[in-house]
## 1
Amino acid sequence: MAMLDSALETALHDLEHRSLRRVLRVVESAQDTTVVIGGRRFLMLSSNNYLGLATHPAVREAAVRALDIYGAGAGASRLVAGNLEPLARLERHIADFKGVEAALVFGSGYLANIGVLSAIAGPDDALLSDELNHASLIDGCRLSRARVAVYRHCDTGHLRTLLDETRGARRQLIVTDSVFSMDGDLAPLAEIVELARHYGAAVIVDEAHGVGVIGPGGAGLAAALGLTREIDIHIGTLSKALGAYGAYVAGSSNLIDYLVNQARSFIYSTGLPPAIAAAADAALGVLESAPSLVERLHDNARYLRAGLERCGLRIGATATPILPVMTGESAAALRFAHGLFSRGVYVTAIRPPTVPPGAARLRVTPTAAHSRRELDEALAGFGAVARELALV
Ligand SMILES: *Cc1c(COP(=O)(O)O)cnc(C)c1O
């Protein structure tokens, strides 16, 4: 035991030395435009709570009501005894929102991705995966034991080459984020769908950062491009723009029935807490009744982006409210984040392996709920730290 412990300590020192050690900070308040840490107030610009729904009154009320009726936990996995009514209601709502036949809720986006990929792909299949896909998709690919062909980021020419190379597979499945989580750029979904049609491949799209952010009423990138019917499997989270927790898979009734029978992370895991399902359901209702929230998010992102650029900062090639301020080295990202923190602005340094080596960044995300005054206050902090670190 002492030997393992000292080996772990050495590994931690090594991470520290390379500016790659991570620490947990305790947030002492709700996830809002400002948060409290160590008794101090911070402007929050690092959450995925894009529409501010985590604290929306209708969402809170729905959760409290469901908690009163159904209690805390689902009590069992869905197939055994834990398929409580709020879950079924949420799934119907999601299917209608996405404009598909059916949906299935998983415990989290991570669980959805490993569950779906390992259920639908096996050793005889080929999974074609964008190199910047989310870690949960990468792990799902590994778990499936399919042949995994990784194509260069958004490079449909390379994807075509790999589709040619894997033609002998039983099935070819193309898997991609719709909005890339650390860069905020968009997958070339129209071209991907065209290639899929040509090769008879299936398309799986993870809209974790698309739902509530992109497309008509926040329905995601596939909906924005009119490609809903061309996508075989839609995945999205309830934990980001919808402010709750959990994730969904949506598509045909056959797909959903198959996953109920074959997705191990669904079968062998307790159902989502009913209050959380009710919260997500209510959040979806808020999004549908107030699509202007999505516009406000984009207005805030445009405003913040212009301000960051006026500070002389380099923003990566984003097409969404995810604003990556590129620093290159991990140490520089950490220094920048610490400088902001000391000025009351909370932005996390994103470092390898979350992003490629040499591509460290601050991932800045406003929400629809931020006021202009709050964004101005944050920008003053960015300007001061950029000058102090002589980044401009
Ligand atoms: C956050 C994220 C997930 C994981 O979702 P959780 O519900 O947080 O587990 C999956 N895919 C993408 C693209 C994500 O950004």
## 2
Amino acid sequence: MLLYDFLTQLPSMSTISKGVSTLSSTIVGYIVPAVLSWLFIYATYQIFLHPLHRYPGPLAAKLTDAYSGFYAFQRRLHLKTWQNQRAYGTVVRQGPNKLVFSTIKAIQDIYKNDRTTKPEAYIALGPALTVAATLTARDRHVHRYKRQLVGQALSERFMRIFEPTMINQVDLFITYLLQSAKESIPVNITERSKYLSFNLAGLLGFGYDFGMQTSEENKFMPMMLEAGEYWSNIFFQWPNTRKFRLGLVFVQVLRQTRGKYLALVEKMITSRTKQEKDAQQDLYSILAGSLDTGAGGLRQSELWAEANLFLPGAGDTTKTALSSIFFYLSRNPDCYEKLAHEIRSTFKDGSEIRGPALAGCHYLRACIDEALRMSPPAPGILWRDLHPGNDDLPFIVDGHVIPRGTTVGVNIYSIHHNEEYFPDPFSFHPERWLDDSATPERKKIMREAFIPFSLGPRGCAGKAMAYLEVSLVVAKTLWYFDFGRAPGGLGEIGAGAPGMGHGRERQGEFQLFDTFTASHDGPYLAFRSRDGLFS
Ligand code: HEM
Ligand SMILES: *[C@@H]1O[C@H](CO)[C@@H](O)[C@H](O)[C@H]1NC(C)=O
């Protein structure tokens, strides 16, 4: 019966086919031509009439931000930008309204400039936050207020207070290496650096120990952030994807882990807010009296926003700095020898490795800078536009008058490999930073083109911590161990290879996968403890 009703209610075949043919003639007759003419007009406008039409760049980029979205999806926008810059010159139109520059003059004009700020697209970097954090704030006054607070917790002075906590964590890293040395098991440095860096971020931020170096429970956390940043970077590069609410796809795919992650951040914050403000010397002790900490619900608060960007800001960057310096030391035996000599002759005991004596290790500093140059932990373009409500003065970047509504930036990876500033850019050559034969002008130019931490009012607030962390880890490791590439295939992980293509052919280069910060793998290293240091 039911089937009968159903069948009789269906329109007859002839009615359907009549409908289909009217529909298809409408499509062919009106819609297709309308869409084609619109596309034609749009493309003509973008290519010949748009205010940026004179700027060179790939055709697809002139038409749509999907161009950047595509390379962000493939995690190689930094490599593509470097290639574009070689093909088109020092300024490239890399999106309908985007210009990427690669000169030191442009760095000054864009970043050392109070008139610029971060574009709206930066909200993509926060996980559905309702308020701005230091890293994402667009409004100048809001930013200045937050930055001054965060700056206190990350100052050189504060680092001296934090150093003992940091040393405890670095010693756990060393303990792990010792165990691996005893058992002759190669170590995946990306993995260990992640645990160390995120653990330190939790401790410095909220006096909270994630225990990632010693237990399994919270190890999902860096993985979750990595996935989050990958997606966010696609939205960041291709802001329209946000309008289509593609973020929801991400939320769905990672629903469980994301929930677990947010619960962990909440636990970190609440276990701290239960304590007295001054119970610990951490970022919270400074923010507590000044930021809104959750009258309207914790997850709507300024404190929540700050915590959610502080963890990746501090953890996801230093893990890359650590992994890359170990990679380059394991492949450049001369540098390894020089550095080992500096560390082993400066200190008399592993426990002395800290403070001013450590900061005075010049070759170490040169190795860190060279690793940050070759493999910058934030390898991409930090987009900027004019602060809203600005004056009517023209905005000039490297001699170009920038039309309103244009976002501009310098790609960090690309400028770090500009031969004009860094001869032989793909060789790890720490000596370039120390070279006494270089003229002062040459050195000044190199310093100005070196921007792993960006610069100006929005430059990295955590530089002192980053240098301290990397210096401690590398110096202590070289004090207690000798190390080298793991034998066989494991030892190749992290390097480029001829078959990898797309700018990933160089075997001496640590491979970064650009996600605003960077993903990477390896290096796998074999450690041997130095005689008599462990008894
Ligand atoms: C080698 C390690 C690091 C690198 C390469 C690095 C790089 C950067 C860069 C390029 C920016 C500018 C981002 C932008 O314009 O969107 C930045 C901002 C920032 N970084 Fe770092 N960072 C590192 C480590 C850290 C650490 C350890 C912390 C905290 C403990 C930290 C905290 C911040 C904060 C709070 C900002 C926002 C500054 C502002 O907008 O006022 N960073 N960092
Ligand atoms: C090394 O560790 C990273 C981070 O945990 C991981 O993604 C990667 O797969 C590991 N490498 C190998 C070869 O297992």
